[in-house]
Design brief:
By secondary structure, this protein is mostly helical. The protein has one helix at about 1-144. About 0% of the residues are buried.
Length: about 140
């Protein structure tokens, strides 16, 4: 009887502690379950966003970049066209100047070559005649 009474007292004293421990463990398990569910939910949301929204964002960014590249290309082509239009007359004038210069040099070279040929012809043909005439004159002077 005493041992049963002691056991009953111990059970009555320990029972609330066990109940509190059961409640604490249950609450802890529920909190962990809710936290796990929240983490899984957040992970699922992030994965869903990564799978669905991220490709859309990437495509939108690619489209924007493509439009920017096209705009830059169009602007650069327009600038190149303006530069070509501005430079074209200068190039044409330069071509005309170079052509005129080449023609002038050709004419000058032809004149110099012609003068040289005339001088060489004179030196080869007329100069010996002049020398012969001078020799004849000197001979006549010497004879006289």
């Amino acid at each position: 009887l005493v041992s049963e009474a002691v056991a009953l007292v111990v059970v009555r004293l320990v029972e609330p502690v066990v109940l509190v421990a059961i409640v604490v463990v249950t609450v802890e398990a529920v909190v962990e379950l809710v936290a796990t569910m929240v983490l899984v939910g957040v992970s699922l949301v992030l994965v869903t966003l990564a799978v669905t929204v991220l490709p859309l964002v990437v495509v939108l960014v690619m489209l924007v970049v493509e439009r920017l590249v096209v705009a830059v290309v169009l602007v650069s082509e327009a600038v190149a066209l303006v530069v070509v239009r501005l430079v074209e007359p200068v190039v044409l004038v330069a071509i005309v100047v170079v052509t005129v210069e080449a023609v002038v040099e050709l004419v000058a070279t032809m004149v110099l070559v012609g003068v040289s040929l005339v001088l060489v012809t004179l030196a080869v043909t007329v100069l010996p005649l002049v020398v012969v005439l001078v020799m004849l004159v000197v001979e006549r002077l010497v004879v006289a």
